Structure prediction request, 132 residues.
Amino acid sequence: MGGVVLCEEQCEVSFELGLVHAYFPEAYSGIISLVWNTDFQQQLNTFSLNRDALARYDPLSITVEDTVFTWPTNEHVSDHTTERGDVHLLSNIRFHDKSYFALGTDFLHRIKLRLKARGTTYVEVAKNPRFP
Prediction:
């Protein structure tokens, strides 16, 4: 599957009303900064990304027991316009309650299951139906 594994312990994935949210402890947030070479923006409450370097932002994964949930990069980034009219490309990772981060996908259309015999179950979380 590749990508950045955000969490393998004390993580949680929930599905509800067309939404999927993954929660992971603050201790794991440094992995994102290290791999993506970007800082967490306190004023935006997320990571501001470089639009010209999207290829370097690996998919994000969270492991819950023997199941790996993966978010392709274009499923967790979007444009955000500030009150001053500045446009930022942001990940939808948000910091909550000064204790954990959440990665969400809205309007979940499907979950693709990839099962491996005698191994890990992979779940690709994607909302865009054009993906194979």
